[in-house]
Specification:
The protein is of the alpha+beta class and about 60 residues long. The chain is about 45% helix and about 15% strand. It has one domain. Strands 1-2 form a two-stranded antiparallel sheet.
Length: about 60
C-alpha cells in the first residue's frame, strides 16, 4: 500500500526556491514576492511551469 505523501505548500516551496538561488535571482524573486504580497495580502501563491512561482487572485 502506498503511503500518503505530505503536501508541501506552494509558499514553502517558493521559500525553498529563494533560498536555493544564492545570487541576484533569489534576491530579485524575494523582492518581487514581497511587492506582490504587500499589494494584495490575499494573493494565492502557486508553482507552475516546472517550479515557476505564480501569483493569482479571483
Amino acid at each position: 500500500m502506498n503511503r500518503p505523501v505530505a503536501a508541501t505548500s506552494a509558499s514553502a516551496m517558493i521559500d525553498a526556491k529563494i533560498n536555493e538561488l544564492e545570487d541576484w535571482r533569489g534576491k530579485t524573486l524575494a523582492r518581487v514576492r514581497k511587492l506582490i504580497r504587500d499589494a494584495d495580502p490575499e494573493i494565492v501563491e502557486e508553482l507552475k511551469w516546472r517550479g515557476t512561482p505564480v501569483w493569482s487572485h479571483d
